[in-house]
Amino acid sequence: MAPDSVAVIGASSDPSRIGGRPIDWMRRAGFQGAIYPVNPTRDEVQGLKSYASIDDLPATPEAAIVAVPAPQVLATVEALGARGVGAAVVFSSGFAEVGGQGNAAQQQLVQAARRHGMRLLGPNCLGLFNAPLGWYPTFTSSFEGGWPLSGRIGVVSQSGAFGSYLVTLARNRGIGTPQCVTTGNQADVTVGEIIHWYAQDPAVDVIAAYVEGVTRADVFVNALNAARQARKPVI
Known about the structure:
Layout lengths: L4 E5 L11 H9 L4 E5 L5 E2 L2 E2 L13 E4 L3 H14 L3 E4 L10 H15 L3 E3 L6 E3 L22 E5 L2 H13 L6 E4 L8 H10 L5 E5 L6 H13 L6
Parallel strand pairs: 1-2, 1-5, 5-6, 6-7, 9-10, 9-11
Antiparallel strand pairs: 3-4, 8-10
Helix pairs in contact: 2-3, 5-6
């Protein structure tokens, strides 16, 4: 939610592409951390020095964005974990949402991340944002109509499309939602964990959640209890 550096694996010079949009958003929003594009075919991406591989990075980033095709995701997660990256936002699709071998591939991702003590958001997620920091690891196009307004509502949505729609409606109605997390397939990080995070975050007074299915019910219930104890309504 608040890293001081990020690597973008599959970085693109095109700000409209999945691997280019988060770089564009963060640069426009004034993210103060280091951004390390990783693309083996480019020396420069959107005005930033690009690196051929994760091993070539000049420092270990706190977080990473994974925007590569599904067959490359496992090796990418392994390399990030071995490098000591703490968390990865996985945009890539082609996992449990497609069933069959996708389920097994997703489980491999989780196992790889856990071996290295790394957390995963996604896969098949739209990312997140923390507007006061200019932290926008997301490929949503919703900010073309304006940035999120300041306020004290934290949003978490299993669906990236619905989450984007919700924060856009809020902005258009003058409601501040400066933080939003989309969880996608919830292979690791779940809606419940994000609710718990907001329950403990002094910058959040109200929590808005869109949930299609509860995984890890104990975590979800504990999160609701934490929010209740903090006197923060969960909508």
